[in-house]
Amino acid sequence: MKPISPLRLWIAGGLVVASAFYLVVSSLSAAGMSELPIRTVREQGLVNRVKLNGVVEPASTRYDETRMELRFTMADEQGEHIEVLFAGIKPNAFRDGGQVMIEGYYDAGKDVLRAETLMAKCPSKYEQEGPDHPAGAATTKGS
Fold it and tell me: CATH: 2.60.40.290, 3.30.420.10, 3.30.390.10, 2.40.50.140. Which one for 35-120?
C-alpha cells in the first residue's frame, strides 16, 4: 500500500474546513432572516430570500401531483394577498384556512412568491374545554 502524500492530506483538510465554514455562514444568514409583511416585499421588490407567515385562502389551493407543484393564495395579518408557488410534496398539515410559514424569493414580474420552504402549522388536536367538553374530557376534532 502506497502512503498518502502530505499534499493530499492538506487538500482534504482544506475541503473539510471550507465545507464547515459554508455551513456555519449559511445557517447564520438563514437564522437572521426576519419575517416581512407582503406589502413590504412588493414595495421593495426584494430579490433576497424572504420569510412570510400567513393563512392559506379558502378554495385557492391547486396541487398537481404529477409535477409536485402546489399553488395557493396566502394572506398576511395586514390583509394583503399573494400567490405562492411551491415545488415539492404538499405537507400533510397543509389545508385551506391553515397557517403557513414560507421562505423563498419574490418574482416581481409575475407577482408570485416562489417558496423553497413551506411549513404548515398543525391544527390544534383537541378542542378547548367548555360547556360541551368539561375538563378531562378532551375530544379529537373531526376531519
Answer: 2.40.50.140
